[in-house]
Design a protein that fits this description.
About 35% of the residues lie in helices and about 15% in strands. The protein is an alpha+beta fold and about 260 residues long. It has one domain: Muramoyl-pentapeptide Carboxypeptidase, domain 2 (2-Layer Sandwich). The strands form 3 sheets. Strands 2-4-5-7-6 form a 5-stranded mixed β-sheet, sandwiched between helices. A two-stranded antiparallel sheet has the order 1-3. Helix 3 crosses helix 7 and helix 5 crosses helix 9. The protein is globular, with a radius of gyration of 18 Å.
Length: about 260
């Protein structure tokens, strides 16, 4: 987890040359494509259902990734994509999500109650707390599950989406050999099409942003940074003060107390 925080610190200083590409609707694109892709219907924040939009320049590679999964007998299920500032704010997450994060933090601390600053560091890894490092806010990231066409059951990757525990990290030693193999196959398909795996969540992939450029060691600036969605046409506007935190550590204290009551 501390490695994840250091990773985020590196991303904070990574250069971004925003290209202002539009955010396009993935469900609309998929209808026309003939590629089999599913979209989650679960609302995981208090403020909005998922917004399934991605930058225009990433759509072809997104479809190619999903099509390759189809050829393997798999269906990509998009769990989450673009997030607004309010959606990204940890305080707007559901109790279930917040409690799941608290469980892994308590597991790491061997049951001891941590300070708000420590929780803030961990939330920064699991739910980015700063727009600059929140690639969902850049419209360049998707969270995915993978479903078997044969039986409609999710393929074994060792855990389910948003299952926050010791199995969350991509190279977790706590998952089976088969689950690790499936994780690697999914990541190979995604990376072949420019989407790089976030090392600390096995479901998160992004392209063209600071994460992807840093992980690929491209040496190039990111072309996608955090933006606001202006209208239904997909027009975007770069977020000002993108390195300003979405929530202060002290603001998490009350949520911490509420979560601890539920967990004990």
């Amino acid at each position: 987890m501390e490695l994840g925080y250091r990773f985020m610190h590196d991303i904070l200083s990574y250069p971004v040359h925003e290209n202002n590409e539009k955010l396009v609707s993935l469900p609309e694109i998929v209808k026309k494509s003939g590629v089999k892709i599913k979209f989650s219907s679960i609302q995981r924040t208090k403020v909005s259902k998922p917004i399934f939009r991605l930058r225009e320049g990433l759509v072809d590679n997104f479809l190619q990734s999903a099509e390759e999964m189809n050829r393997r007998g798999w269906i990509m299920k998009v769990e989450d994509a673009f997030r607004t500032r309010d959606m990204q704010n940890p305080l707007n997450r559901t109790r279930k999500t917040f409690d799941a994060i608290m469980k892994i933090i308590l597991w790491e601390c061997e049951g001891k109650i941590p300070e708000p600053e420590f929780i803030f560091r961990r939330l920064t890894v699991l739910i980015a707390t700063i727009p600059k490092i929140a690639t969902h806010m850049s419209g360049s990231a998707i969270d995915i599950s993978v479903i078997s066409m044969r039986n409609g059951i999710e393929i074994d990757r060792g855990a389910y989406y948003l299952e926050m525990n010791e199995k969350t990290f991509m190279e977790s030693p706590f998952v089976s050999k088969k689950a690790r193999e499936n994780r690697h196959i999914v990541s190979e398909i995604m990376q072949k099409n420019g989407f790089y795996a976030y090392p600390f969540e096995f479901w998160h992939y992004s392209s063209g942003d600071a994460f992807a450029q840093f992980l690929s060691k491209s040496g190039k600036p990111a072309v996608y940074g955090p933006v606001e969605l202006i209208d239904d046409s997909g027009t975007v506007r770069p977020i000002k003060n993108a390195t300003r935190v979405l929530v202060q550590p002290e603001q998490l204290l009350e949520r911490l107390k509420q979560s601890l009551k539920r967990l004990h």
